[in-house]
C-alpha cells in the first residue's frame, strides 16, 4: 500500500510544450536531493520530450537499430532502450520510499497498477507480465496471442527517493519506435490509445493518470511550477 494516511499531498506538475531531456534529468537530480533532505515535497512531473532515445543501465548496443535517427541519451535508470517523443506522456515520479516502504519491487508493481487504472478509464484492459516490465494490451486483431506495449517503466532510486518513471503512449508517431528494439523485447509491437481507435487528447490522459495516481499513491495537489 503506497498511500500514507495523513501524509502531505504529492505535488502534481504538468510542464507545457516540449522539455529537453538533459535539463529534465538535471532538475530531477536536484529535486531528489531536496526530497531526501526534507526540503521539498514529493513530486510527479508530467512532460513531453522532443523525439529521442534513452539507454538504460541494461541497454544492449545491438538494440539501437538506427543510431543516427534521433539523439541518444545514456541514463542511470534501469532498463534498456526506450523512445520518447511528442504525443507520449512521460511522468517522472519522485517519491520517498523511506516513508512509503523500502520495497522497490512493490513500487514497480504500484506503478503498473497506476497505469492499468488510468487505461481502465478508457475501457482499455492493460495487463502486466511477469517476464516483461511495463503494461501490455492484447491485440486479437493482429493474430492469436498478439499483444502490444502501451506503457513503459524505468526507475532509479537514490537515498530511497525514486526518479525517472513511466511513459504512456497517447498519440506518438509509432514509426519512431522502429529505430530501437523497445526495452530489448522482440516479437511484440508497440501501440497507443489513438492507435487502438480511441480519440484521447493529452488532457484526457492526464486526468485519468491523476485519478488513478490518487487511488494508488494518495492525494496530490496541482502546481503550476
Chain-wise SSE layout:
Blueprint: E1 10-14, H1 21-36, E2 43-47, E3 52-55, E4 72-74, E5 81-84, E6 88-94, H2 97-100, H3 104-120, E7 127-129, E8 132-138, E9 147-158, E10 161-169, E11 189-190, H4 202-217, E12 220-223
Parallel strand pairs: 1-2, 1-12, 3-4, 9-11
Antiparallel strand pairs: 2-6, 3-5, 6-10, 7-8, 8-9, 9-10
Short description:
The protein is 24% helix and 29% strand. By secondary structure, it is α/β, with parallel strands linked by helices.
Tell me about this structure.
The chain is α/β, with parallel strands linked by helices and 225 residues long. It is built from four helices and twelve strands. The radius of gyration is 17 Å and the shape is globular. The model has no long low-confidence stretch (mean pLDDT 92).
Spans of at least 5 consecutive residues with low confidence: none
- Mass-distribution shape: globular
Structural class: alpha/beta
What share of the residues does DSSP label as strand, in percent?
Answer: 25-35%
Q: Whole-Å distance between the termini?
A: 28 Å
- Element-by-element helix/strand order: EHEEEEEHHEEEEEHE
Helix content: 10-25%
Q: What is the number of E strands?
A: 12
The number of helical elements comes to 4
Overall residue-averaged pLDDT value: 92
Amino acid at each position: 500500500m503506497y498511500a500514507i494516511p495523513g501524509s502531505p499531498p504529492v505535488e502534481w506538475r504538468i510542464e507545457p510544450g516540449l522539455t529537453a531531456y538533459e535539463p529534465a534529468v538535471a532538475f530531477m537530480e536536484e529535486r531528489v536531493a531536496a526530497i531526501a533532505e526534507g526540503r521539498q515535497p514529493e513530486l510527479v512531473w508530467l512532460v513531453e520530450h522532443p523525439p529521442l532515445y534513452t539507454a538504460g543501465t541494461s541497454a544492449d548496443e545491438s538494440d539501437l537499430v538506427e543510431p543516427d535517427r534521433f539523439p541518444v541519451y545514456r541514463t542511470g535508470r534501469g532498463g534498456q532502450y526506450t523512445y520518447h517523443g511528442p504525443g507520449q506522456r512521460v511522468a517522472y515520479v519522485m517519491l520517498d520510499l523511506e516513508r512509503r516502504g523500502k520495497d522497490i519491487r512493490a513500487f514497480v508493481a504500484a506503478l503498473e497498477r497506476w497505469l492499468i487504472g488510468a487505461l481502465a478509464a478508457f475501457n482499455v484492459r492493460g495487463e502486466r507480465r511477469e517476464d516483461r516490465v511495463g503494461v501490455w494490451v492484447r491485440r486479437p486483431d493482429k493474430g492469436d496471442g498478439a499483444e502490444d506495449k502501451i506503457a513503459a517503466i524505468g526507475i532509479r532510486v537514490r537515498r530511497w527517493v525514486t526518479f525517472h518513471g513511466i511513459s504512456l503512449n497517447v498519440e506518438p508517431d509509432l514509426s519512431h519506435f522502429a529505430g530501437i528494439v523497445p526495452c530489448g523485447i522482440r516479437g511484440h509491437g508497440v501501440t497507443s490509445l489513438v492507435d487502438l481507435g480511441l480519440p484521447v487528447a493529452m488532457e484526457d490522459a492526464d486526468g485519468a493518470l491523476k485519478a488513478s495516481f490518487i487511488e494508488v499513491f494518495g492525494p496530490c495537489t496541482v502546481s503550476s511550477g
